[in-house]
Amino acid sequence: MSWKRNTPDPPRGYHHGNLKEELVRAALGLIGEKGPNGFTFAEAARLAGVSPAAPYRHYRDKDALLADVAARGFLVFEAALSRAWDQGRPDPETAFHRLGRAYLAFAHDEPAYYSAMFEAGVPLDASPELRSAADRAFQGLRAASEALIALLPATKRPPALMMALHVWAMSHGVAALFGRADGGRRPLPMSAAELLEAGMLIYLQGLGLGSDTRG
After folding, report:
1. How far is it, in rounded angstroms, from Cα 171 to Cα 150?
2. Where is the HTH tetR-type domain (predicted)?
3. 73, 114 contact by CB (below 8 A)
4. CA–CA distance, 163 with 207 (Å, rounded to integer)
5. What is the b/e burial string over 171-202, where b = at least 16 CB atoms within 10 angstroms of the residue's CB?
6. Cis peptide, bond prior to residue 90, ω within 30 of zero
7. What is the DSSP string of 2-47?
8. Domain ranges in the chain?
9. In the CATH hierarchy, which top-level class contains the domain 62-181+189-207?
10. What is the pLDDT of residues 191-210, one digit of tens each?
11. Distance CA 94, CA 26 (A)
């Protein structure tokens, strides 16, 4: 994935009317080409068509730019998971499997965002916006876990946080190893979605949940 401008470079010192958006677009393109740690702040400025000093009007350094990209990615991610969950309709188990497919689809379709979110090494507390966006995305997984756990007898319900973390780890592992859209994708005799769904079925059956509980 790359982003190329079709217009000549503006004069040095030129200030975009929306420089912040241009820098985010440039960063996404560079992440797609080189990874989150494979480019410099100056390269992002050059691709955005401004002087190396111009980005400092909006970002302290490259890490601050990456934190903004990651925060935006988490917002897109949260929206995708929310659509997939659809308030648990028509039943929590069916909706839960949609969540897994949405997770894989986001990792495949938005590799630059996904890399900024999970591979750039930027701490979640790098900005309040990043922490808030990441927490909201995870809360979607936790809420889905709570809805599933509610189907079990009260004495057999695992902690919702633990379940959400298990589901996240499984989804992330399948996405990172087998769901990528780049050369890092490992070959599989099945689709990544099929692998994740099989793993989820085994996990849910271990909790006492299964297809026989669906409506």
Report:
1. 22
2. 17-77
3. yes
4. 10
5. beebbbebbbeeeeeeeeeeebbebbbebbee
6. yes
7. -----SPPPPTT---TTHHHHHHHHHHHHHHHH-TTSS-HHHHHHH
8. 62-181+189-207
9. mainly alpha
10. 999 999 999 999 999 999 97
11. 38
